[in-house]
Amino acid sequence: MDLPLIRLAEVDSTQAFLRRNPQLGFCAVLADRQTEGRGRQGNRWESASGAGLWMSVALPSPSGVAPGLVLQRAMIAAARVLDPEGRALGLKWPNDLVAWRDGRLVKLGGILGEQVGGRLILGLGVNLTWAPAIPDRAILPASLVDLELSSGPTPDLAFCIIRYWTNLAQDLQPLFRWPEAGSPIHWEGGQGTCLGWEPDGRLKVASAEGIRRLSAGDVSGLGREL
Q1: Where residue 129 falls among pLDDT bands split at 50, 70, 90?
Q2: Are both 116 and 190 inside the same structural domain?
Q3: Of 8, 136, 184, 225, which residue is least crowded by CB atoms under 10 Å?
Q4: So what's the pLDDT on residue 43?
Q5: Is the peptide bond before 179 cis (omega within 30 degrees of 0)?
Q6: How many CB atoms lie within 10 A of CB 167?
């Protein structure tokens, strides 16, 4: 499926733009700057002009793919485009784009997904040339430039990602997943040990309350136990 790409100089958020314009049908929107970008759990996502990839895509809902896998596969696809040689980028549960830098996990991007009518709207934000300083975050922001990865023109990146996203039934694998089995982890309201990633996208953990299988909406602030 070839989707039209709308490019905007500035918008509140690409995700909100597609939500309020259902008449556009299946399409993609790319912005140079967002004034009200947002991430998971209602967090604000810094979207400085020309510093990143800010895009949303309205697609038909993929059939036969567990809801918990949709965003993971979409983010793995983005990693394939941004890091084609598989040098640095991996997936942090449930669907963050991360890398290891100086022995620490850093976050380069996030993704949102919403079912709106008959459309699945995926929203992606990735720091390409700059990342905001947010010292109170357990996992600090970083950019592709910080990792010495080159990105290329944002429209080219967007078109490549869109091609992957039109086939989310494809089972792509990331360079690495965090947490891996055996990693001690904590989240808002609990702590435990990762036992692995389930085939449906949930995270299997051992906690004081027993074995749990966490969905993306169950937790926030997932981090390492130090």
Answers
A1: very high
A2: no
A3: 136
A4: 54
A5: yes
A6: 12
